[in-house]
From TrEMBL:
The lineage of its organism: Bacteria, Pseudomonadati, Pseudomonadota, Betaproteobacteria, Burkholderiales. Signal peptide: none annotated. Coiled coil: none annotated. One of its GO terms (biological process) is D-serine catabolic process. InterPro entries: Ala_racemase_N, D-amino_acid_metab_enzyme, D-ser_dehydrat-like_dom, D-ser_dehydrat-like_sf, PLP-binding_barrel. This is D-serine deaminase, pyridoxal phosphate-dependent. The keyword Lyase applies. Belongs to the DSD1 family. It comes from Trinickia caryophylli (Paraburkholderia caryophylli).
Amino acid sequence: MYANAPLIGAPGGRARLDTPALVVDLPALKRNISRMAALAQARGIALRPHVKSHKSARIARLQIDAGAHGVSCATLGEAQVMVDAGIRGVLVTSPVVGEHKVHRLVELARKAGPRAVMAVVDHPDNVAELASAAASLAFPLGVLIDYHAGYGRTGVTDEHAALALAKRIGEAAPLALRGLQAYGGNLQHIGERAQREAAAAALRARIVKIVETLQAAGIELEIVTGVGTGTHDIDSSDEVFTEMQVGSYVFMDAEYAQVLSAASDTRFETSLFVQSTVVSVNAPDWVTVDAGIKSFATDSGIPLAARGIDGPSQYAFFGDEHGKLVVDAPHRPTLGAHIEFVAPHCDPTVNLHQVYHIVDGDTLVGIWPVDARGHF
């Protein structure tokens, strides 16, 4: 039984949680999902949202019910969790390499059925590896060519490499080329919108070059996938991409709240918080809370106090289990006070917690597992 389960449905349960606790505002979450779905529908672009942000089959189901035609997964383990939950249209967005993982992928595809699971490839050796394992399937395994659109972590480097790889896939009967992945992760947090637009336009031009090169060789692509929360309303403005892999929009975080600040940016709400308790008030200039580096990701700045405190404050990491909250004397919270923070980076923050505490207003309405946490 979850520690906070007795509070489900109790009046004021949100303010009585044992902490640290990962909290999701359910109405805000649903509004974010609806806003992105409405934008996608209006612009004629499909949604295959990325579950690496929430790692939750329940939230993925909300996205599917709102119109998404599948999900994107960073790891094979995430994909297995989604398929086990009955979700199809699953794309594994990182290359699946090595005998054991390739076997897992093929068995997952077998379980899910035709066209239900896809993988990306960026090297001919991986094409051969996948083709050999997929020969046992009764249907071809769908693959997408991965293009290194930004960071260069994975992907082919140009249109010539893409064409060569497409030809290798075409020669592998157990595989079916479904499309191209071009996720510009380096674009998503460019703060100045005009610079973000220019960088996104440059990427789309490179994608068009790849698509046209393949078309000239008689190779058509059904799918061109990519697009993150930071460029969702930019990259959906023309017909280069056929679908978006947006992820963080469901929660938002401190970093994205700063990025999506222009008047032309879609307004998504913060729906994810980490609730903490003030456990010491003896220091003259700060209070100590019970949420430290085991409760927040530390790669993207500091948490922002959002609920339970009046006036300005400054958080600082204070060890594994604790945080320091510097607060002016008139606004100092009392011992035992509950304070909710906006996470600096939602994806890795979620990965630190086992469950979501789902709230509607001040009421705890459910506790949902972070299903795909720890699945690789």
